Amino acid sequence: MKYLSLIANLLVGLTYTIFGLNGFFHFIQLPEMNADAGAFVGVLMSSGFFSVIKVMQIVIGLCILIGYQRPLMHVLIAPITLSIVLFELLISKQPGVGLLLALLSSYMFFVYRERYFPIVAKA
Q1: pLDDT, tens digit, for every residue of 93-121?
Q2: Half-sphere exposure of 100 (CA within 13 A, CB side)
Q3: Which of 34, 42, 45, 71 is an S-S bond match for 112, by CB 3.0 to 4.6 Å?
Q4: Four-point Cα dihedral 41, 81, 21, 48, nearest 10
C-alpha cells in the first residue's frame, strides 16, 4: 500500500510538472484538436488564464513530488483535474491522460481520507 501511494504521487506530480512546463517550453508535440477544442484553448491562451493554470500545475506538481503538504496539494489540484477530464470528454471528445489523473487522484483521496475528515465534520 505504501509503495502504491508513492507511485501514484510520483505519477501525478510528474505529469502535472511536465505538462505544466510544456505549456511554456513546448517540448511535447500535442495532438491535433477539433475546432471546438482549438477555440476553447485559444480563448484560454489569449486571456492569460492558461498561463495561470500552467504555473499552478508546475508548483503543485513539484510540491507533490517533494512531499510538501501532499494532501493539501491533491485538494488544490482537484479542480484542474476535473477540468481536464471534462475538456477531454465534452469538448475534444478524446479521452486521454485526464482519466488516468482522475483515477490516481481519487486513489490518493482515499489514501489521505482521514486527513480530510475535519473538512466535512459537523462543528
Answers
A1: 999 899 999 999 999 999 999 999 988 88
A2: 10
A3: 71
A4: 40
- Packing angle of the helix pair 97-111, 113-120 (nearest 10 deg): 80
What distance in Å separates the CA atoms of residue 116 and residue 118, rounded to the nearest whole number? 6
This prediction has a pTM of 0.92
Number of C-beta neighbours around residue 46 at 10 A: 9
Who contacts 69 (Cβ-Cβ below 8 Å, separation ≥6)?
63
pLDDT number for residue 83? 96
Q: Which three cell numbers stand for residue 51?
A: 498561463
73, 93 in Cβ contact below 8 A?
Answer: no
Mean pLDDT, residues 2-18 taken together? 96
CB atoms within 10 A of CB 70: 20
CB atoms < 10 A from the CB of 58, how many? 18
- Mean pLDDT along residues 1-13: 93
Q: What are phi and psi of 51, to 5 degrees?
A: -65, -40
Chain centroid, CA 66 distance in Å: 16
